[in-house]
């Protein structure tokens, strides 16, 4: 498979020098995101997040299964990230690259380990039946800052998602189809989002938000902070790179919080809009179809 | 061409080094070779394929059943050098292990007529995954299958086609796979409450037989689907499941020893495949090109043809028109409407050949 | 519920691929990326022609045997219309990502499904053709595909174009047909229980949808009337999508 072409020396120099003069190639401020857009699908649990030219699609799904023997009281929650050759022909199927491993690790830590989804609520009969919730992350186009876009898409998909309703009667579990009972949302505890900083300069003194693919290729270090709108930090990861002053990082996390609040408000708006759209006659049409049969 | 195909005689002077014997020529340029045998320069010689068959001639089929003693049903099918063995094994799946099981689902189908019952049966087979086919193209059955690699695309494709056809053609009646239980009543209850007896004696499904249908290609020489499907049909018709009943005291399904009941198999669909051989091998323009439809292609012919067709027909209904269970055509544009219609007739002939070989 | 009945498409949706398209019709939404001709892996290299690699990725779960089968069907059909002889020893890669597919409200779907999903095939096929056009890969002909189901309802036989999952569940037979722009039958996949006569009717219906000749200026009114009766006109749709894309790209001229 062909390898991605690296930026030339001139390109690198140009980007770095511009940043030192507080300029970015696309005219943004250093701490400014590209316009974030979210499209929710016709189906529950489909979220398409766009950040400039970066586009990530997340799809949540649920199915009944048997819980793990060592965790009989918990449901199963997995996030699957596989970069397909759609992102770039340099990615091959079944051969994870470093980008892919990093992405899945960070999503795992941010969403799964921060207990954003209450896995205990997914358990139906202890040790016998539980829901297995799965989010598939499909990267359609990669132009930098994959992590923030993917995390936003995953959280949106899970909050939008509804699983089939169930009932327990005398030890007999019944799972209703969507035609019988309206599906129910997941039990969601908090919404963490990732904010990724890229560092430039000899001491990493220039901090930039939402780097593009070209900017990512020339950075000297990066740091991903995951937090929710209440300012609770779920994880911070700075994997190597040039050392950065601790005080600078504190400043970064303060800015991150304002960004996360923006994401959170935007998502709430979108979800409310979608709920309103669905309610318009949608339910009534469904009921009349039911009576036909 | 003629100099090439004439055998090298002993008394002739040594041939120039650029003359090949038939097998060498066939190996070096298979396309012109097959073309030459299909359209011989001498009109008195009939058109035939490299393997000596006529274009519309299939290989003889041999079916042997019950050869595996450990399986509940088995069949060995051989057509030419394609040999496939199929074993069917039933395993009990208690309803408590089916997470998505719905007890009320099959209760009311009896009132809705035969069509609804079949539809419901198909849904149960699919939803609880009661038919599990698996296909292995064993290492060494043909040179292209290497050891230690994941299943080839071919194996996965054939497996999907068998799975889809098993479900869509409704071969197996789900009733034969259900394990029913009618709750017995204690004696005292019987005396006192005779009135309530009827409602309480409602039978319930306690488990299902899951049929694992394993196919192994012992040798592979083209046309895997036809052979695989014939093997599946023969093995299913050969399948005898032991009598199983629900033991309420031990709360499990127990099987009785000895010969069981023969599985109820509906109909006899038979698959018939062909490939289209084109005159020009590397031309982009296909205008006015000659073509031959080669029935039951072997491995070499499959390598030379791109367009393939498979029709699955069932003439077991007796009078009336042939039922088509599946029709798949891909890879080219030679086979249009008329040729496909005609091909259904060819498939009907093949059905008769296979049905005659199928053990009763 | 909110499924679109008219096909919709956008070309060049992915900035980094050579060609891409997003297509939605009958509840299915598929995005495709085409890269090529690019360097082929050693094992796929063919000295006479380009290798066409089709990858189908489901919206949820990992691709299984069903996707492999879909891939092989698409691969053989697309290699026929692409002029593969023009690019020996290279690779044309087509990645199809299913984004949305309609759900059957009467069944709780399982994640891993083995049986073939017929209704998705036209959407995959159409998206692939659009993406190939967008990538400028030379082709012998374009192609259009459609799905038709024969449903018996209360003893009455109906032919349903672009069936919903529920209709497929109760259908007697389901058919997918694809035609090239020269009106040749490129792909025919059918399953269920049917006779030759029924297949003929299905063929006629599908052909009407796929091979509707582009309406001439004077016969516009007549063409519109027919269209209303025969359902969507795929070939015209393909053409108008390309025309509007070209017009948008050349607006500066």
Automatic annotation (TrEMBL), chain A:
GO-annotated molecular function: mRNA 3'-UTR AU-rich region binding
GO biological process: exonucleolytic trimming to generate mature 3'-end of 5.8S rRNA from tricistronic rRNA transcript (SSU-rRNA, 5.8S rRNA, LSU-rRNA); nuclear mRNA surveillance; nuclear polyadenylation-dependent rRNA catabolic process; rRNA catabolic process; TRAMP-dependent tRNA surveillance pathway; U1 snRNA 3'-end processing; U4 snRNA 3'-end processing; U5 snRNA 3'-end processing
Pfam families assigned to the protein according to its UniProt record, in alphabetical order: RNase_PH, RNase_PH_C
Coarse class of the protein's main subcellular location: cytoplasm
Keyword tags: Cytoplasm, Exosome, Nucleus, Ribonucleoprotein, Ribosomal protein, RNA-binding, rRNA processing
Gene3D superfamilies attached to this UniProt entry: GHMP Kinase, N-terminal domain (3.30.230.70)
Residue span, Exoribonuclease phosphorolytic domain: 32-164, 191-256
GO CC aspect terms: cytoplasmic exosome (RNase complex); nuclear exosome (RNase complex); nucleolus; ribosome
Subcellular location as annotated: Cytoplasm; Nucleus, Nucleolus
Family in the record: Belongs to the RNase PH family.
PANTHER family, per database record: EXOSOME COMPLEX COMPONENT RRP45, EXOSOME COMPLEX EXONUCLEASE RIBOSOMAL RNA PROCESSING PROTEIN
Protein name: Exosome complex component RRP45
Automatic annotation (TrEMBL), chain B:
Keyword Nuclease: yes
GO BP terms in the entry: exonucleolytic trimming to generate mature 3'-end of 5.8S rRNA from tricistronic rRNA transcript (SSU-rRNA, 5.8S rRNA, LSU-rRNA); nuclear mRNA surveillance; nuclear polyadenylation-dependent rRNA catabolic process; rRNA catabolic process; TRAMP-dependent tRNA surveillance pathway; U1 snRNA 3'-end processing; U4 snRNA 3'-end processing; U5 snRNA 3'-end processing
Main location class: cytoplasm
GO terms of molecular function: exonuclease activity; mRNA 3'-UTR AU-rich region binding
Any one Pfam family match given in the protein's UniProt record, by short name: RNase_PH
Region named Disordered: 1-20, 35-58
Residue ranges constituting the Exoribonuclease phosphorolytic domain according to the UniProt record: 57-242
Biased segments, Polar residues type: 38-50
Alphabetical keyword list: Cytoplasm, Exonuclease, Exosome, Hydrolase, Nuclease, Nucleus, RNA-binding, rRNA processing
GO cellular component, one term: nuclear exosome (RNase complex)
Superkingdom as given in the UniProt entry: Eukaryota
UniProt cross-references to InterPro entries, sorted A to Z: ExoRNase_PH_dom1 (IPR001247), ExoRNase_PH_dom2_sf (IPR036345), Exosome_comp_Rrp42_subfam (IPR050590), PNPase/RNase_PH_dom_sf (IPR027408), Ribosomal_Su5_D2-typ_SF (IPR020568)
Protein location: Cytoplasm; Nucleus, Nucleolus
Gene3D superfamilies, sorted: GHMP Kinase, N-terminal domain
Entry's family note: Belongs to the RNase PH family.
Protein name: Ribosomal RNA-processing protein 43
Species of the source: Podospora fimiseda
TrEMBL record, chain C:
MF-aspect GO terms: RNA binding
Protein known as: Exosome complex component RRP46
Taxon lineage: Eukaryota, Fungi, Dikarya, Ascomycota, Pezizomycotina
Keywords: Exosome, Nucleus, rRNA processing
Family to which this protein belongs: Belongs to the RNase PH family.
Start and end residues of each Exoribonuclease phosphorolytic domain: 9-138
Gene Ontology CC annotations of this record: cytoplasmic exosome (RNase complex); nuclear exosome (RNase complex); nucleolus
SUPFAM superfamilies linked to this entry: Ribonuclease PH domain 2-like, Ribosomal protein S5 domain 2-like
Superkingdom: Eukaryota
